[in-house]
Structure formats: C-alpha cells, structure tokens
Amino acid sequence: MTLLTPLALSLAALTIPILLLYMLKLRRKQEMVSSTFLWQQLLREQQANAPWQKLKRNLLLLLQLLILAALVFALARPALQVPVVASGSVIVLLDASASMNAVDVNPTRFDSARDSVLDLINGLSPDSSLTLILVAEKPQTLIAAETDKTLLRQALGNAQVSQGSADWESAFALAAGAGSDSTFVIVSDGGLPESGLPALPGEVRFIPIGESQNNLAISALALRPAQKSPQLFAEITNYDSSDRAVLLSIYFNDQLIDARQLSIQANSSRSLTLDDLSNNNGVYKATITTPNSTNSLNSLNAPNSQSSQNTLDSLPLDNTAFAVYQSSASRRVLLVSKGNLFLEQLLASLPGIQPFRALPAADGTIQIPNDLFDLYIFDGIVPPELPNANLLFVNPSSTNTLFEVGGTYNEFKNMQVTEHDLTRFVDWNNVHILQAKTIQTPAWAETLIESDAGPLVFVGETKGQRVAALAFDLKESDLPLQIAYPILFSNLINYLAPPSAFDATQSLEPGESLSILAPSNVDRIVVASPSSQAYTLALNQSTFTQTDELGYYAVNFISGDSNHVEYFAVNLFDGSESNIQPRETIQVGRSTVTPTVSQQIGQRELWGWLAALALLVLMIEWQVFHRRQLPSLPIFRNKLDADREAR
Amino acid sequence: MLFDETTLRKLNQLTLIASRVRSGAMKGERRSSRRGSSVEFADYRNYAPGDDLRRLDWNIYARLERPFIKLLEEEEDLAVHILIDGSQSMNWGEGAENKFQYALKLAAGLGAITLASGDALTVGFLQHGKVTAEFGPSRGQATLSRLFRFLENLQAEGETNLNRAMRDYSIIPRRAGLVILLSDLFANDGYETGLRQLMGRGHEAALVHVLAPDELDPPLAGDIQLVDIETNQTQDVSLDGGLREGYRTRARAWIQSTQTECRKRHIRYLDAVTSQTWDHVLLLEMRRAGFVK
User: Fold this and answer.
1) Which of A353, A574, A594, B147 has its CA 20 to 30 A from that of B31?
2) Could you tell me the domains of chain B?
3) Domain that holds residue A323
4) Which pTM value belongs to this model?
C-alpha cells in the first residue's frame, strides 16, 4: 500500500487543537445548586461501581480523534497496488454489437465486458486518462481523455448494447484520431473483421469476452411474389460445433401456419421454401425453438412466448425474424386528355395500374373528379388549378404554377439522354420529334432528355409533389413506336405513382435508414417500433432512421380519421454477429493480438472507504453526544418516566 | 406574607397534635391525662387521709356512707417549638418555590394554629450552628402579628449544622412539648443527633422536609461543574441520561430512608416539595400526615 499524498499526514497535527479544545471544553460550565450533598453521595456510588466511567467520559474525544485519523488517512490517499491491463493514456473500444447480447456469460456478454472496463477504470493510476468508444453501428465516443473515475463510471453506466452489427473500421478511425501513443484496449467477443482493419498508433491489447459458440440463427427470411401467391424463403444456420435439431415455427399475423422440425449439421445451413401462401398483406414471423414437445405446445398456444427460446442457444436475438408481404396495390391514374390512344394503351397494359380517363368539355373546360388519384396525367391540357398530387404533363398547353411554357420550335439538334435511374435502357437514338414547346427546366427539376434548344423531358419534386413533363406531343413524334416509349413511361409512372410508400420487400439491417414517400393525402406519419415506441415523421422528412431495434415496425399513414398501416421488418441477418464463437486472437493491421493478462501496476484508492468510516464514526459520535444531552428534552423525559413505570 | 382571611379562618380551626407530651403548665384547651381541677368529671377514687375535703363527693358519701374523692379532668396547654433551618441551602428556588420563604410560610401557619388553639409557641431560628433568633414562648392570638414580623425579618445564610444548633436549642431548659423542624436536611453530619437530644429532653419531634422540585429532578445536562451555594464546594459531573436517572433514584431513596428512620424513632415526617402550594401542605398534607386535626 502506498500513500499518494503523504504530505496530508501532516494534518494529523490537528489532533493538538482538538485536544486543546477538549481541555477547554472540560473547563466545565458552572451550575449553581442548592447543595452538592446528594451529588457527592451519588458520585461516590457511581465511581465505586464503574471504574471505566473515566473512559466513558472521554469516549467523545476518542471518537473525534478516530474521525480525524480516518479523514487524515483518507486525504493521504492510500492506494493498493493492483495489476491492470493498461495505464497511461488508454483508449477502450467496447464492443456493443448484437453478439454482445449473448447470455453464455452471466448475465450477458456486454455486462461482462462492462465489468472488465470497470475493473480497468478502478485500477487506473491517478495520472492515467481513459477514452471510451462504444462500437456499434455508429461508433461513438462516450467520454474522451477523462481522468475522473466517477465520470468514467457514469459514462460506462450509460453505455447500451445495440442489436446491430459493429462498424469496426469507423471505430478504429475514431480511436486512431483520439490519440496516438496510447494503449488501445479492445473489449470484444471477437466479432471483428478477419482482415482489413488498419493498424492503431500504439499498443493494442485485447480482452476477450464470451465462452460459448452455441448459437443457431435464422439467417434469411424473405418473400417474393410468385405467379399465384407469394413464396417464403427461410434459412437457418447452425454456428455450433455439434449437430442440432430445431423447431421452426412460422406465423402469419400471429397465426401459426407452419411448424417443422429441422436437424442442422454443425456449421452449416438449411433452407426451406413455403409456397401457396395467402395473398393478403401481413407480417410473417419465423422463430426457432428447441424441439421439445412441451415447448412446441407452448409455442402453439402462445406464439409470442419468449421463454421457450431462451434455452435453445446463447443468443436469442437472432432466433426470430420477420418478413413483410405487401402486395402491390393497384394505383389509380387519371388521364385527362382529348383522346390519346398511345397513352391509353400504355396505361391499360402496365401492371398494377387502374386507369381512369377524363374528357374536357366541349368548351375546353376540364372537370377534375373529386376522387383522389395517385397520379394525374394532363395530355395537352393544363387545368387552371392543379391538384395537389403527383403530376405528369404531356405537351403542356400553357404556363402554370409549376413552370412556364413558351412557344414551339422544331429544330432538334444534339438530343441527349442524361444518366438517370429513370432513363435506364432508354434508347433515344431513333426518336424523331416534329415540334416541341419551349419550357425552362424549373430549379427543383432535373432534365432527363434535352436538345440544344431546351429540355424535352424533366422530372422533379416540389412541395411534396412529384412532377414530370414532356415538352412535345406524342402524336407529333415517333416515340410511341419506339421501344424507349414503354420503358420511359413505365419508369416515369413508377416514379410518379410508386407502388408503395416504401419498399418493404427486403428487410432492413439494424440502423439502416428507410426512405418513406408519403402519399399525397396524408396528414402525418407515425412509425411504431417493435417496443411500441412511436416516432412521428414530418411530412417533408422522407427517411426514417430509428431502426436500431430488431422486429417489425408499423408505419401509420394518418389522414383525418382514417389510418392506413404498412409494415417493414428489421432483421439481424449478419453471419459475423450470429457466429458468436469467441475469438482467441484478433487481427489488427499486420499483427495478431492475443488476449492480455493483467500485468501493469495500477492503483486502487481506498479513501472512499476511509471517508465512509469517518462518516460512520461521526454518526456514532453524534449519537453518543445526544445520549448525554437528550434527557433534558421533555419528550425524552416522558419516555424515561414511562420506562420507570414499566419497571 | 400575611395570610388572607379565609386561610386564617381555616388555620384557626386546626390544632396541632402531640400524642405523648403531657406537661401543660397552664390551663389550656387540651384534655390532659392528668387529673386536675376543671369541671369535666373523670373518675372516683377512695379517700385517703389528707385529701382535699372539698373534692369529696358528698352525695356518694350520703348514699354509701363511704368517702370517695371525685376526680376531675385536667385541661392543659401544649408547648410547641418550631425550629427553622436558616442555612444558605434553604435559600433556593425561584419565587414561590423558594424553600426558605416556603418554610417561613409553613412556620407562620403552624404558629397561627398553635396560637389559635391557645398553646405556647416558641420559634427558634437555626443558623451557623446555633440559635440566632428566638420568638416566644408566647401564647394568644394577639401575638400573631408579632410572630409574622419576627418571621419577616429572618434571612437565610451560612452553613448548616443542624446537630449543633439543635443541641444549642436543647441546652436551655424549656417546657417539653412538640418540636417541629423545618429543614431541607442538606447537612453533611446529619440531623439525627440533634433531634435525639431534643427527644431526650422529653420533646416530641416532627420533621417537615422542605425540598425544591429541581432538587429532585435537576434540569441539567452535559459536562458541568456544580457549585454548592452554601459551601462553595465544587463537584464535576458529566451528566448523561444514566447519571440523571441515578440522581433521581438517589434522591428518592434518600427521602425514603429519612422517612423510615423517622418512623423508627417515632418522629412524624412530612416531605413538602415547594411546587405544592404551601396552604395545601398546611391544610391537607399535614392533616393527612397527622400533624394537625
């Protein structure tokens, strides 16, 4: 044991003033009494009875000296020498990836890792600083170069394990930026990439976490639309070193539709496909459990029961997966035209489109139906008031609120197709146009096809509306006769009237963002997470990023009183996380890092205990003092009287 | 310090009791065990030569032809001695709880009773181990105001020596009677010898133990130095709950043992704590303890 500030021991000189004060205090207060006759008798008796009275009288002094001793000793900061992993400038990378949820060490790997870091913090010498980086999907520095152990413990206590995979490259970049010439301590179960991690500017130490590799995972669950009904594909991987049998249960909207027992060999996968599923929209859930008869009964009765999964393997997180089936609903498209065979034919042949047509009246005025449509196509006509929805203009007749329309021209030189998702496979080489309108591409739009004289096709998004325009009449070009025509229009219509507000066919990884296109008539969007937390999205916000949790999310499109729900799923289909086998070594840069045993000398300070002791003695001293004083209070006297009567 | 009319009237109805002293010198209002010359008939006895013929009952002689002497009750007075402890320790207590003032009031009350019942009253003031002031012997209601003036002029001071003072009182030949000592008994060498000496002179003794309430339960705490107002002796005590409780027990035991001691010696005992009103003690407690009737 060493004293960090031995100079503080000189404070022991405070004993002298305490003793002096005590002597002064013993110059007793004088109290007149009528006679000391009885007192003398009493004290003669008492002193005869109790020779330790003198000591008792000095009990307060002894206690006060004890408090002083404890405080002085605490200020001298005694410390025990304990072996630690690192000291000096320490940067800790704490793995918070999904595999750290494994329960092979009690209570979880992450808690065990946190305990390791706590040991490290407690053993830090006073001049050491520590930086704590939590490695999850987005690595973050919890606390930087801090020497205060209380703050460090607090920051460590706030660390939460995630359900996603860890981004080690970013974490290493963060760590390398945090300090050179430091000791880097990686606390992980070893789910690091096998190679490709950059070297760190300093010594790297590795504290391995985890014991077991016992894990089975649903490594894939996907739906695809087939001819008649959707198909479900599921894959289960056994990461354990022994062959395992599992019970795979598949639920559709919480109704068990299929359960089968599969035996999977060690370190291999098995997949299965389910056909003839319902055409209805819904959420498919797959769980794997131990093929125990009671458990399977349980899971039949209570499909959401978690208890049956806990015994299967060490990482329950990946034993459940979700897939969402969203049949593409037919989109309502209104064609406002004096008659355009090409467009009508095209709309009739596109899948998932329900076309409607509106004819202008004889005097040219247009009556737009009150029903809402996903897309309005204005062919050669522009209504005085544009509906607040996605619009496609073909040969716009006049200037409107979205763009200006000028005169016609017929010189088309150097027609070009911009590289764009919407112009993929569009071959414009053989297209000829008789005449087109001069339209300036608005600031919010981008030109898809243009000639030297101006844009021919442009698309863009303004005020939540998706707008596209063709500057020429289809009948005045040979475009409808080209292959480019159905491709371009199919792309445009899919863009302007997307099949769904978001694409839910593929499940997301944790932390991946989802772009949601709000249908035009929606007031607000509320996303409910698997843990029933609600996130309200602004209408102009088209991405949802809080996808850290595994499970399925409900996206509620609320307009007025009606509510339309669509789902998407977030699954951990990550082999490196599901493979929870603890690694013996990790590869950083070119060197292989082996687990570190504690070797450096750290110090564990003991002043807290001494301060606690001083506080305890102070409380005893207070009690002793008041035992002497309290009887003069009436309440205490009443108690004494009661005692006396009891006797 | 004068009594009000009601109290005085009550006092006039009371009489001090002395159970064993029978040596009246003058005609009083008490029946004596001696046969005497009053009008109350007591008994007959045979005539013996030399008897006063005036006392022969001629009626009996006529009937029985034998001479009988008619014995008549003697009525006599009682000598009452009130001794007041005038030491400094008696001068303790605030206001009405002052022991000395309290003792003076009790003395005045007892004196008033004595005078009202026609007995002879002597008041002795014990101070510095001797009798420093004396009142009486006197009798009759008329001397009551003189008694009050005498009492009003007394001052408590000096050390207690009850034994010596009582011996001083007993040396002078006095009529044997009832001796009432008013004291707090805070005397290191005790009071027993003095009282025994007085009783040896044929007196009957009674003791009124005057104590202030804070002497039974002192409102003190902590490390203090007690100063005796009488002797200026100091005593260091560290008062905690246990010691306070010990003191209370000790005080009670002291009163108890004094009481037992008195009963053994046929001394009437009354402890008068000054928190009680003095007339309550005089009119009720003393009657209950058999001092007065």
Assistant:
1) B147
2) 5-13+77-288 (3.40.50.410), 30-76 (no CATH)
3) 216-327
4) 0.49
Instruction: Decide if A504 is inside a domain.
Output: no
**H/E stretch holding A610:** helix A607-629
- The alpha carbon dihedral of B192, B198, B203, B207 has a sign of negative
A117 and A265: one domain?
A: no
* C-alpha–C-alpha distance, residues A564 and B10, integer Å: 105
> E-assigned strands of B21-67?
27-46
E strands, A164-230, are: 182-188, 202-208, 216-224
Q: Is residue A506 part of a domain?
A: no
Q: Is residue A466 part of a domain?
A: yes
ipTM of the complex: 0.74
Structural domains counted in chain A: 5
Contact (CB<8Å) A34/B99: yes
Contact status, residue A158 vs residue A168, Cβ threshold 8 Å: no
One-character DSSP codes across A242-297: S-EEEEEEEEETTEEEEEEEEEE-TTEEEEEEE-S--SS-EEEEEEEE---HHHHH
Sign of CA dihedral A554, A559, A563, A566: negative
Name the pairing type of β-strands A445-451 and A416-417. antiparallel
Same domain, A198 and A222: no
Containing B101, the helix (H) or strand (E) segment is: helix B99-116
User: Is B243 an 8 Å CB contact of chain A?
Assistant: yes
A335 and A317 in one domain?
no
Chain A contact for B229, CB < 8 A?
yes
Which of A264, A296, A327 represents a domain boundary (last residue)?
A327
Under a CB-based contact definition with an 8 Å cutoff, are residues A309 and A330 in contact?
no
Contact at CB, B92 and A631, closer than 8 angstroms? no
User: What's the start-to-end Cα distance of chain A, in Å?
Assistant: 54
Residues A408 and A471 placed together within one structural domain of the fold = yes
Query: A363 and A269: one domain?
Result: no
Q: Are the beta carbons of A34 and B221 separated by less than 8 Å?
A: no
Q: What is the DSSP secondary-structure string of A396-443?
A: --S--SS--EEEEE----S-EE---GGGTT---TT--BS-EEEEPPPT
**B264 Rama sector, left if φ>0, alpha if ψ -120 to 50, beta otherwise:** alpha
- Which residue has 């009083």 as its token pair? B28
Q: Look up the CATH number of the domain holding residue A300.
A: 2.60.40.10
Closest partner residue to A29 (CB to CB) among B188, B225, B244 is: B225
Chain A residues close to B220, C-beta within 8 Å: 31, 632
Residue of B nearest to A634 (CA): B219
A518 and A475 in a common domain:
no
Rounded to a whole number of angstroms, the distance from the CA of B70 to the nearest CA of chain A is 59
Q: Are A606 and A79 in contact (CB under 8 A)?
A: yes
pLDDT tens across A135-175, in order? 888 888 888 888 888 888 888 888 888 888 888 888 888 88
Cβ proximity of A33 and A39 under 8 Å: yes
Do residues A292 and A405 share a domain? no
Determine the pLDDT at residue A227: 66
Which CATH number covers residue A403? Answer: 3.40.50.880
Instruction: Say if the Cβ atoms of B228 and A33 lie within 8 Å.
Output: yes
Query: pLDDT per residue over B202-245, tens digit each?
Result: 888 889 999 998 888 888 877 788 888 888 888 877 777 778 88
